[in-house]
Amino acid sequence: xxxxxxxxxxxxxxxxxxxxxxxxxxxxxxxxxxxxxxxxxxxxxxxxxxxxxxxxxxxxxxxxxxxxxxxxxxxxxxxxxxxxxxxxxxxxxxxxxxxxxxxxxxxxxxxxxxxxxxxxxxxxxxxxxxxxxxxxxxxxxxxxxxxxxxxxxxxxxxxxxxxxxxxxxxxxxxxxxxxxxxxxxxxxxxxxxxxxxxxxxxxxxxxxxxxxxxxxxxxxxxxxxxxxxxxxxxxxxxxxxxxxxxxxxxxxxxxxxxxxxxxxxxxxxxxxxxxxxxxxxxxxxxxxxxxxxxxxxxxxxxxxxxxxxxxxxxxxxxxxxxxxxxxxxxxxxxxxxxxxxxxxxxxxxxxxxxxxxxxxxxxxxxxxxxxxxxxxxxxxxxxxxxxxxxxxxxxxxxxxxxxxxxxxxxxx
Amino acid sequence: xxxxxxxxxxxxxxxxxxxxxxxxxxxxxxxxxxxxxxxxxxxxxxxxxxxxxxxxxxxxxxxxxxxxxxxxxxxxxxxxxxxxxxxxxxxxxxxxxxxxxxxxxxxxxxxxxxxxxxxxxxxxxxxxxxxxxxxxxxxxxxxxxxxxxxxxxxxxxxxxxxxxxxxxxxxxxxxxxxxxxxxxxxxxxxxxxxxxxxxxxxxxxxxxxxxxxxxxxxxxxxxxxxxxxxxxxxxxxxxxxxxxxxxxxxxxxxxxxxxxxxxxxxxxxxxxxxxxxxxxxxxxxxxxxxxxxxxxxxxxxxxxxxxxxxxxxxxxxxxxxxxxxxxxxxxxxxxxxxxxx
Lengths: 412, 341
Description:
CATH class of chain B: Mainly Alpha
Helix content of chain B: 55-70%
Oligomer: heterodimer
CATH architecture of chain B: Orthogonal Bundle
Strand order of the largest sheet of chain B: 2-1-3
Number of domains of chain B: 1
Largest sheet of chain B: 3 strands, antiparallel
Largest sheet of chain A: 3 strands, parallel
Order of helices and strands of chain A: HHHHHHHEEEEEHHHHEHHHEEEHH
Structural class of chain B: mainly alpha
Shape of chain B: globular
Structural class of chain A: mainly alpha
Distance between the termini of chain A: 24 Å
Largest interface: A-B, 44 and 47 residues
Low-confidence stretches of chain A: none
Mean pLDDT of chain B: 86
Number of strands of chain A: 9
Strand content of chain B: under 5%
Number of helices of chain B: 13
Strand order of the largest sheet of chain A: 7-8-9
Number of helices of chain A: 16
Low-confidence stretches of chain B: 1-10
Shape of chain A: globular
Order of helices and strands of chain B: HHHHHEEEHHHHHHHH
Radius of gyration of chain A: 23 Å
Radius of gyration of chain B: 21 Å
């Protein structure tokens, strides 16, 4: 079979996660780069070893988990949900109650990470399953509104259940990412402090990064596997044509409950990790905008694919940083000189409160949009743009590029 | 002002009626939700677009009104002798035209390319539009709220007031059984005018063309109806109605200071009203709007138990919506989707 790279002689090899040599090689290389990142040895990517960039990459890993959850619901099972942020909030507060400081101001039992992290997912999944029957009864666009209601009802509960959430303006602290066997004083593995692991000196950001990276990889593997199972195929048949699926013996009710359950499990774990990673979170963190961010992740990346979720998350999470850096750079250019570039960029950025510009770096005041507002506008434009021009998202663009080289010189 | 109020409250024998307050408040809220729902339903019926950007359009429209009426004073600056209410009304008309233009532009730029795509994909496009408009509007409004410049102000009509004045214009310090803000009267009358106007419009030649388009786009086109023009028109009407909804939200007693960054958020509560009535029913929009308005008002007035915390009235619309959808998945008046095999 040499020289016939796409010839499969068994179902197993056809359905394998890495079914070509190229995929194996690039997945291995990618993993190697990610593991070596904090050591500043990868040429060209050295800047990513800094603490702030590692924190950003950790955020990407956490959002990948949440994005995979929405992808299972939206991309595989075809159910529109604007309530993802609500399930993330549930996961976060379950984690906070189980793992929180028992002597703290708010409710907490001080249980170890290996209890609170799975429990966050399980409780969120149970609530998702409890919500499932509504999704069977209410279809399509009406479902989007029901899940929208879920976000607002959740927001009200979170704001008022002060003993758990800390209330609207204050918020509460969440258990840190430390691994203990039980409630002992010294954590067995601490992901939140500088120090040596097996004799290798690491900063705290690098340790956190390794932990969430491992979690994200595990959930990616699970999601990828789910697509290849009976359940995953049942989800896709419901997405494509629910009546046809039922005629073929796919139980719509049971599979929609499963889809909501699995999706909410991912959301719960992601929410618990996010809250724990950030440290202190106010209830309005779990608002409609977070849900929309996840919809943006799935749509920009490409609905229905694991690789798409990773691409989409990287794009959505890293975009604000890139926009901010670009704005600061433009500001420097404008302030520095009177070259042609500076004159052009002066129209884009506002350097003081009287200057005209599309964007400014002054907080809150001044003409033009702040960097945060500009990011939101860009999110909106990207969602619209991808839906109009490239419904398959970044993954679709990648497939087009790949097929161009694969089939060269033929275009078919 | 405040010491007077305290003294009056001690001396008075008049008991403010909680029921009366609830009814007036419910009517005012109902008018807001009904107008927002009407605009939404018109867009959905004619173009099959589920417009998540409706709340943002409401805030933008309210900003336009504040901008035309109080900041640049157009057309008031060219007609100095005219009475204040006329200047303000003309400013509102100008602002509504601006909102309608924005609605038409949105349809032409973002939604025309999505024609024939899945309803869900189009709905997500409007979600994107919502983020953009809301962000830009909030930036335009700024940190402080902008006054709407309406001639009604804080004036109210009182019923059963202290000091022998049984009925008439009162100020805030008087104690009355029921007080009706002028703005509520204005909101209700304008809502009635709009509903009658829409009912008449649907009997006109253009209105019939719009109904035909809602029924079947291709057949309508075969009859010589310019479907594109109908789409533009329905978005213009929908956006203008959203602007009126935004105006209603930004008036006393909802947002006494005028339009601010909360306006778009408030308009989101019109979605339960839309769902309650059914996405594609004009009558449903009215009934749903006032039902949700009364439910919210009643909850705010009577359900004041401590364990419910703050802001329970604000989630009542969503709770009502969740309940109704479980019993009637297509709302009270919505068309049931027939699924063919």
